[in-house]
Amino acid sequence: MVAKKRGLWLVGARGGVAATVAVGLAELARAGSEAATVGLVTESPLLAGPDFPSWNQEAPWSSWVLGGHEVRAGTLLEAARELERQNGALPVGLADRHATTLDAIDRRIRPGVRFRSGTAIDALTPGSPTSSATPRALVEQIKADLIAFRESNQLDQVVVAILSSTEPPTPADTLPTTWDQLNPLLDRAESCPLRASSLYALAAIESGMPLINFTPSLGASCAALEERAVACGTPLAGRDGKTGETLLKSVLAPMFAKRALRVESWVGHNLLGNRDGAVLADPDNKRSKIDSKDALLARLLGYAPQSLVSIEPIASLGDWKTAWDHVHFRGFLGVPMTLQFTWQGCDSALAAPLVLDLARLITLAEERGEAGPINALAAFFKSPQGAVSDDFGVQFERLRAWVSGLERSSVP
Amino acid sequence: MVAKKRGLWLVGARGGVAATVAVGLAELARAGSEAATVGLVTESPLLAGPDFPSWNQEAPWSSWVLGGHEVRAGTLLEAARELERQNGALPVGLADRHATTLDAIDRRIRPGVRFRSGTAIDALTPGSPTSSATPRALVEQIKADLIAFRESNQLDQVVVAILSSTEPPTPADTLPTTWDQLNPLLDRAESCPLRASSLYALAAIESGMPLINFTPSLGASCAALEERAVACGTPLAGRDGKTGETLLKSVLAPMFAKRALRVESWVGHNLLGNRDGAVLADPDNKRSKIDSKDALLARLLGYAPQSLVSIEPIASLGDWKTAWDHVHFRGFLGVPMTLQFTWQGCDSALAAPLVLDLARLITLAEERGEAGPINALAAFFKSPQGAVSDDFGVQFERLRAWVSGLERSSVP
Amino acid sequence: MVAKKRGLWLVGARGGVAATVAVGLAELARAGSEAATVGLVTESPLLAGPDFPSWNQEAPWSSWVLGGHEVRAGTLLEAARELERQNGALPVGLADRHATTLDAIDRRIRPGVRFRSGTAIDALTPGSPTSSATPRALVEQIKADLIAFRESNQLDQVVVAILSSTEPPTPADTLPTTWDQLNPLLDRAESCPLRASSLYALAAIESGMPLINFTPSLGASCAALEERAVACGTPLAGRDGKTGETLLKSVLAPMFAKRALRVESWVGHNLLGNRDGAVLADPDNKRSKIDSKDALLARLLGYAPQSLVSIEPIASLGDWKTAWDHVHFRGFLGVPMTLQFTWQGCDSALAAPLVLDLARLITLAEERGEAGPINALAAFFKSPQGAVSDDFGVQFERLRAWVSGLERSSVP
Amino acid sequence: MVAKKRGLWLVGARGGVAATVAVGLAELARAGSEAATVGLVTESPLLAGPDFPSWNQEAPWSSWVLGGHEVRAGTLLEAARELERQNGALPVGLADRHATTLDAIDRRIRPGVRFRSGTAIDALTPGSPTSSATPRALVEQIKADLIAFRESNQLDQVVVAILSSTEPPTPADTLPTTWDQLNPLLDRAESCPLRASSLYALAAIESGMPLINFTPSLGASCAALEERAVACGTPLAGRDGKTGETLLKSVLAPMFAKRALRVESWVGHNLLGNRDGAVLADPDNKRSKIDSKDALLARLLGYAPQSLVSIEPIASLGDWKTAWDHVHFRGFLGVPMTLQFTWQGCDSALAAPLVLDLARLITLAEERGEAGPINALAAFFKSPQGAVSDDFGVQFERLRAWVSGLERSSVP
Ligand SMILES: NC(=O)c1ccc[n+]([C@@H]2O[C@H](COP(=O)([O-])OP(=O)(O)OC[C@H]3O[C@@H](n4cnc5c(N)ncnc54)[C@H](O)[C@@H]3O)[C@@H](O)[C@H]2O)c1
Ligand SMILES: NC(=O)c1ccc[n+]([C@@H]2O[C@H](COP(=O)([O-])OP(=O)(O)OC[C@H]3O[C@@H](n4cnc5c(N)ncnc54)[C@H](O)[C@@H]3O)[C@@H](O)[C@H]2O)c1
Ligand SMILES: NC(=O)c1ccc[n+]([C@@H]2O[C@H](COP(=O)([O-])OP(=O)(O)OC[C@H]3O[C@@H](n4cnc5c(N)ncnc54)[C@H](O)[C@@H]3O)[C@@H](O)[C@H]2O)c1
Ligand SMILES: NC(=O)c1ccc[n+]([C@@H]2O[C@H](COP(=O)([O-])OP(=O)(O)OC[C@H]3O[C@@H](n4cnc5c(N)ncnc54)[C@H](O)[C@@H]3O)[C@@H](O)[C@H]2O)c1
Ligand code: NA
Ligand code: NA
């Protein structure tokens, strides 16, 4: 049996997460690079054994080909070197070791589309004019790039992963709730409530390519596009990768609830120095992220304590996210207590392996004929589509059950 | 139908946890004291609903009578006032509000027994001679006190809770593994490997009174006594209440495992100023606690990172435990990261509601005819008897399933 | 020789700091209350000895009488009890112990004036109309109250301390720089750039009563009023008491400078739950505080790192200020490092003793015939008037030299 | 005028601090390497200006030649590369950039002597026999190496810096207090209370070469050797470089004292993963360091709070020292408060520039004809010889006054 050949299409292909995905995949293909598997859930003992897919036989890392869309100039190699210099966000020497591979990927990167992306993202590509094409024409242009990638590389499956800068939020009440209502709005830029991330999402959906939205941008997280995905038979996973502070919240808040301790206030400050942080300095774009981070507390606790989440761009920290959280709670008889934590994580190194895991997992959904939001993947996201619980422990058990084939996952 | 009358017998009846149990129970019986239910798992929405017992109908807090054993002089009211003064370990005014109730309990407190309890515990009662009675005679003396408590208060059920100071550890290889081997050793002080906590445990077991061991002392945590409990039909729950740093470990370590992040080192320092801390200043007694705290990390992660746990008596902190944990871990491609947390909790206020919850829950086991270690109660303990998992999330789901009657819990 | 009788007039006389001053002064007069002297610099060994005034002989705490202005309803006893309940901001029992004394002070509290105080302060006294009097009339009204206090209590000296809620900032360019320019503007409300704090300040200055401005409000911190103070012979000390995070900055930033370590970024988050915090929730009022906290970093380091200061009202924390600071710096060869600290202080208990110290110290200035800004008192303030250095160590040496009489302090 | 040529002799020449000194000095000689001057006090604006030496004219970094003693095998280049790999303790690429320079220094490194150095240090050079020479013979051997270094490199001045692993402590009561008593003990190994660090110190003293003892080992920190240094005209600076947690203590403890806040307890935990940490894992060697770190608290505060200092070797942290300090203190009326800090510093990068500063500064002492302990250098040490104050701010002012020539410094 010949192993399948798979493609992973990265939207935001020269960003920090994308560059780490690229270097990491190259490193995984190298013999004996044990450190590369750290952080990969599909490589961990918890998803291994007779009940689970033998990924390394059926979907080895070497069977994946990368390509993508990007709006910025520059090369992937430059992006990787920048991560090395940023306080060791990539271990020293890896960028150069895989320079040839990175160059090859670079040649498969196509110009991305900007559409209602907001001024912060426009500022990444100064001077570059916004296209005057209709949203529908942009979708078609993206689809053409996706199909060309599949064909020229003779791929059996292609996964699309949105890793581009966070867009401003899209108010729920501007979004039609059915595909029939949304569809005609794509014909005129002025009438279209979607932004670029949703155009990428729609292109993937209509091409039948499973979609991962790792960003807080809307992507396919709305009823009309979920409906479209079910109709096209395309599985969806989103949105906003759960890598740091929110991951901690999703294990700590359930702990308070299960001990019946009363959370009075939860304050979280996030310092961040990379390009993602710079885009998030824009209040509009930041709103998307904060909404995504803040909402789940009340869902996890069953009531809403006073809460505060900030994201602050601190240039000198580079790719190192520092989060400080202060939780004030009461115990028996109302006695006040506190928990504080400081998380010092490297954002790209936390995100990239999850993107690779998701690529593997969503092809499983495709092979099982599941479509629309795959709620078994909720453990990976801050604002999971179709999730049944926000408790990370519960989400993880759901993931295991689904991967082992015990349960189906698509929502309908 | 007349509601049952229940007794809770506290070993270490004038300690910090016991005094908080006493004040808290009095407060719970008062109308409108909402703060009193904070921290009670059996009062939380997670254990409420049609599938769960209607505790407040069938086992209202007012149906419980307290008594206990204690080796120190003093009164329960003094112990409660001490907690108030210790930086607010009890809210101001509660001790005096319930002075009459506390006095009544005091009159039901009987002299405790010391047996191989170690020099730190002996130092709590200077000048008081150790009894020369045989271990078996001490067990009989305890049983007589327990039965007198049941009869003179006309109680339907009595639960025994060990809340006394931590004893030195008992090496596993000094303990016979069957009751037939252990039994004859009780006839001579010199040959008996057990300490006082296990004599209390045995007395409860042979009296058919469900036993809670909230301390790191051995109690009934050995094969011979578990066998005896099964034979006598007595349910067991132990050992070492999981209230602070270890509770956090039991949610955070699984998080690292489920993200495949590699923990390199986990250092935990615990500062503590109360009488418990003073006893734990003795290296022997501290050993019991540290073993209990440290062991579970390897079980939770699947491998043993470098680890360190300290407990340090810092007088000025009173009942306020401060724990600082530093976790050094690696992500994708080996990138090093850290998580630190500081936990500032009031130990007695964290422990007391769990003791009350356990009292309710273990009577449920008795009513269902379960005996020996009740593994569904693992979520409450650092070193749970008969537990199936050390992951707090998993333990809690097990608890819910058992309480709702879906599953039985006793090990055999 | 008969000891002098002194008055301390508190503007904001039922606030948290004022109530702590009142209870503390009562407690200091009690025999054997050693805890009361903690935090008093004038009682410390560093300001004791043959070179220093014998305060307790010449200016014993019992020689001070309190009075003040307040705009809110309520009593001082209520204010003190509120502090007790707020997580122990006052030790339990003190409010009631000194109830009679507090009542007596209450009878000496006069209605305060509001003038351009901002909406957040207006909200403290809902429904109460703003006076239509001219600024000059308000100053005269305040002076009348001050003089009545001095006369009816037969005081030898009166110190005025501004402890009222933080006002919005007053832009420097709206302030005339000489008294001759400022003076005529007091005749019409519309033309007057000053706010209430400066009217209080002017009243004290013109009454020859030494002034302490413990708040970030303008008070006498402008050239025109300093000129007026010199002319009237009144000593000034201000502004904004240095009690917590900023105190730490003023010892830590010099440490970085003296080790030639390069601070890249300094982020400080302050959580605060009392009435002061509530007023500071108003962006206008908060601006005054943040400006005061942030400016000194660049002065201390000699360059401006990226910096961020926030103040966030978190109701459940009561009078407990929690500050988290994250300092990112570089060492030799550019190696990046971090320092983080968490400060958990009780704001009123930190502030009140400094107010008492300042009262003692500024009478010394008066007795020595010094007038205008007393720069030797810089160690007490975030934005010191006339200071020579922002380094707390240097400021403290200056204080010692001045108190011991080695140096004069007034600026001109 | 021809600039002087200077030598810096490193004892422990392939250790982490020494390797960073070597790389840093090479980097400083390179044009345009601005990052290299970070952390150098003699390059900071605080020691610059008309009153201060023009170091870069009179004692440029390029005028220094390195050599040293070492007991371990290996090369300096390997040591430097190890630092690079250890989480970026040296910026990437520096070791290789200066490979030729490092090789040249390596050729000037001579075999060190071990004498009563303790088992942990012996374990660094497994299999290597301890010399049977008398202490005096070892001193002569060291002197011969020092003089050969001076002559073969035609050096005008040579400074000796002890940077070797921490030895076990030497009890004060085993040390004679005069040179006449100590001198004869050097003739027999069995009678000699000194360890290797003191033999190095004596050799430097008798060779008239200024001595820096950056370690907690005894070196010249005893009356007899200080007397000898005065007799030989040799300036001394020691002991134990103040780089991290203790530096913070020396600014924070004075802050508490100057605010009259009462420190109840001060707990400090130090995690450390490098070779220094491994040697400090030995309880004997650790004792030296802890004594040095702990003693100064009582001196700074004027009373001894409960205190605790630990040093724990955590391998995965490499050269990254993490210190967590928890200070529990009381304010006005006894209200309890806390300060916590976490310091994450790279030990070698903190130490190396201070060694270079000290080399410059101690030659100044020599040129001014000062001998014995130079107390103006106290700011650099945890246990300064002849210091007048432990307050870092005061020490720094003393340093400035001395460097600018206003004051002499030698003790007698
Ligand atoms: N790293 C994490 O831990 C993490 C976690 C959750 C979510 N995310 C999200 O992942 C995304 C990527 O993060 P990052 O750190 O790589 O950011 P980044 O800024 O380094 O990369 C984003 C890239 O997207 C490109 N881009 C922007 N708009 C585009 C468009 N319309 N089409 C194509 N390319 C476009 C940018 O030019 C940039 O190169 C962000 O939205 C971030 O919020 C990251
Ligand atoms: N509070 C927590 O968060 C927590 C968590 C887990 C375990 N524990 C354990 O619970 C126990 C009680 O803690 P505490 O804070 O109340 O301690 P404590 O020291 O305040 O109380 C213990 C009491 O037990 C009494 N005692 C000692 N030996 C006895 C004996 N042989 N018979 C009868 N009485 C005896 C002592 O006199 C004392 O009054 C300790 O073992 C502690 O380690 C507490
Ligand atoms: N506590 C600290 O550590 C600290 C440090 C520095 C500065 N300060 C400043 O001290 C001031 C007092 O702090 P607090 O915690 O007592 O605040 P608070 O809010 O408890 O008290 C302020 C009082 O001032 C009164 N007030 C407001 N406007 C007034 C006016 N125009 N005339 C008379 N009274 C008026 C209010 O009604 C209130 O009772 C604030 O400005 C605060 O920023 C406090
Ligand atoms: N780095 C800091 O922040 C700091 C601060 C204060 C003190 N110190 C002290 O500085 C010293 C050096 O620290 P490091 O991190 O470089 O340690 P290190 O272990 O990396 O280096 C010490 C070197 O000394 C060598 N050595 C041991 N005994 C010797 C002897 N008798 N003769 C010659 N060489 C010998 C060892 O082989 C080793 O190479 C230690 O004593 C440490 O405690 C360091
Ligand atoms: Na990133
Ligand atoms: Na206050």
Automatic annotation (TrEMBL), chains A, B, C, D:
PANTHER family per the UniProt record, alphabetical: MYO-INOSITOL-1 PHOSPHATE SYNTHASE
Gene Ontology molecular functions: inositol-3-phosphate synthase activity
Any one Gene Ontology BP term: inositol biosynthetic process
The gene coding this protein: ino1
Gene3D superfamilies: Dihydrodipicolinate Reductase, domain 2, NAD(P)-binding Rossmann-like Domain
Membership in a protein family: Belongs to the myo-inositol 1-phosphate synthase family.
Domain Myo-inositol-1-phosphate synthase GAPDH-like: 244-348
Keywords: Isomerase
Alphabetized Pfam families for the sequence: Inos-1-P_synth (PF01658), NAD_binding_5 (PF07994)
Enzyme class: isomerase
Record's protein name: Inositol-3-phosphate synthase
InterPro entries associated with the record: Myo-inos-1-P_Synthase, Myo-inos-1-P_Synthase_GAPDH, NAD(P)-bd_dom_sf
Documented EC number(s): 5.5.1.4
Taxonomy of the source species: Bacteria, Pseudomonadati, Planctomycetota, Planctomycetia, Pirellulales
Keyword Isomerase among record annotations: yes
SUPFAM superfamilies reported in the protein's UniProt record: Glyceraldehyde-3-phosphate dehydrogenase-like, C-terminal domain (SSF55347), NAD(P)-binding Rossmann-fold domains (SSF51735)
